Amino acid sequence: MRRILLALFFALAMSFPLFAATIQVAPFECDVTLPLGQPVYSSFKPLEEIEHPLLAKGVVLDDGMTRCVLCSVDYCELCNGAFEAFRNAIAKAAGVDPKFVAVHTVHQHTAPITSLGELLLLRKAPKPPKMMDPEVVTDSAAKVGRAVKKACGSFVECDKVGFGKAKVDRVASIRRLKSKDGKPLTRWSSCTDPKLIAMPEGPIDPFIKTITFAKGDKPIARLHYYATHPQSFYGDPRASYDVPGIAREATEKKDGAMQIYFTGCSGNVTMGKYNNRTKEARTALAKRLAEGMEAAIAATKWQAAGKIDWHVVQWKMVPRTDGSNSREKSLATLNNASAKPIDRWEAALEIDFLDRIDRPVDITAMKIGKIMVLNLPGESFIEY
């Protein structure tokens, strides 16, 4: 699996059913910050500062017939074996088959991007560049597993599930733009070019969508879905959960229930129009995202908790072979001690991906009443 599982959220207008049922909910959280000195994306410099702890947050859901897990991690990417290490640890702890576990990364660029096979390939390469220790990945996966196991010892009864959505003001914008003569332009996650800033937001999904699990009037956990690249800054040796994490934790402190954030289909969506890479811009972005969360919570409509439908479709990807996309060329780059560290890392990641290409990717979906969540692999984008 080349990339992470992203979450794409769909919801329909709901009416309260005539029957009552319950779902057991077990929220969990743990710190998966990598140790100081470990190279961190996107600078690949040894980590010097932990501005915010990187957290894994999620819920175990059980309706008596089906048990499933949704987990969101403050990592940039969990690829191939790293993804499988997290999913398998969670599945074992929850007592389910891995196909009932959806692991997502928020995709901050101030957090690890890793694949176990890639790290092992780099270790064996001539004069390897500095990279994360594979043990950091397996240790973090084990931590999440322990958090899930502990949570499963104290399920909370949920008798209603809610859905709300609200517009988010001045956060997301399109990354790929066109000039008046049709030439492609790029508005990255941070932007200081007045001409690019002045261009329209573009076709984004402006809504944040929120699922709430509650018992009576008391919320147990809330799942927020919003489509944008999450980074406001990147390229220095600092760990941070950035804009989504700041908004998420502020909302949790105010609301009392655990808040879990999922990045929606945002392969072509960033915060570049509204982010000039300053602290003031990040603070304003996080404030507006938190306001969107609160508005979605306020707009919640309820349905009785009911049966969990979990669906899995297996999908095999076909790798590109044009241009530089070949195992031979990637292997040559990996073994070239003079190549840039980022190029060798990407080459190792590509080889690791190709080595597992015959294994299908699980596409999963969860449905509760009229609420559906579809989990897609990679940095997906839907032209909204």
Topology overview:
Blueprint (H helix, E strand, L loop, with lengths): L4 E7 L11 E9 L7 E2 L4 E2 L2 E2 L4 E8 L4 E7 L3 E3 H15 L6 E5 L7 E3 H9 L9 H18 L4 E3 L1 E8 L5 E2 L1 E3 L5 E3 L7 H5 L8 E9 L2 E9 L11 E2 L2 H14 L2 E6 L5 E2 L8 H20 L2 E4 L3 E8 L11 H8 L6 H15 L5 E8 L2 E7 L7
Parallel strand pairs: 5-18, 7-9, 8-10, 17-19
Antiparallel strand pairs: 1-24, 2-6, 2-11, 3-4, 6-7, 12-16, 12-21, 13-20, 14-15, 16-17, 22-23, 23-24
Helix pairs in contact: 1-3, 2-8, 5-6, 7-8
Offer a few descriptive terms.
384 residues; alpha+beta; 5-stranded mixed β-sheet
Number of strands: 24
* Average pLDDT, all residues: 92
Strand order of the largest sheet: 9-7-6-2-11
Spans of at least 5 consecutive residues with low confidence:
1-20
Q: What is the oligomeric state here?
A: single chain
Largest sheet: 5 strands, mixed
**C-alpha end-to-end distance:** 25 Å
Written description of the protein model:
This protein has 384 residues and is of the alpha+beta class. Helix content is 27%, strand content 32%. The strands form eight sheets. The protein has a five-stranded mixed beta sheet with strand order 9-7-6-2-11, covered by helices on one side. The protein is globular and about 60 Å long. The two termini are 25 Å apart. The N terminus is likely disordered.
